[in-house]
Specification:
With 118 residues, this protein is mainly α. The protein has a single domain, classed as Ribosomal protein L20, C-terminal domain (c-terminal domain of poly(a) binding protein, Orthogonal Bundle), CATH 1.10.1900.20. Helices cover 74% and strands 0% of the residues. It has five helices and no strands.
């Protein structure tokens, strides 16, 4: 059986990896071995980053809701509000509550009144 050379296949794979590492610093964009390692690390960082973004967004929503509750009444606490929402069976998630607090404050105030029972 004749020997098979991988010239075209290898070249294509190398070009693909080097294209994906475009914009990386130093040898990480020019040398295949370094580029491949950098690409693996970049993928790991991207995976972790996607998880962290979810955590950061939830923190932002909670902060916005807390600030809006303070505008309505300084005695209102976020934890009390969420517990009262569950008790009143109001099924709005934090993201939607945050959007209401920013874009339509009167509707948010109505939700708070509903939860308070007034």
């Amino acid at each position: 059986m004749p020997r098979v050379k991988t010239g075209v296949v290898r070249r294509r794979r190398h070009k693909k990896v080097l294209a994906q590492t475009k914009g990386f610093r130093g040898a990480n964009t020019r040398l295949y071995k370094r580029a491949k390692e950098a690409l693996l690390h970049a993928g790991q960082y991207a995976f972790v980053g996607r998880k962290l973004r979810k955590r950061d967004m939830r923190k932002l929503w909670i902060t916005r809701i807390t600030a809006s509750l303070q505008l309505i009444d300084t005695a209102l606490k976020y934890s009390w509000f969420i517990a009262a929402m569950k008790k009143a069976n109001v099924q709005l998630n934090r993201k939607m509550l945050s959007e209401l607090a920013i874009r339509d404050f009167t509707s948010f105030s109505e939700v708070v009144k509903t939860v308070r029972g007034k």
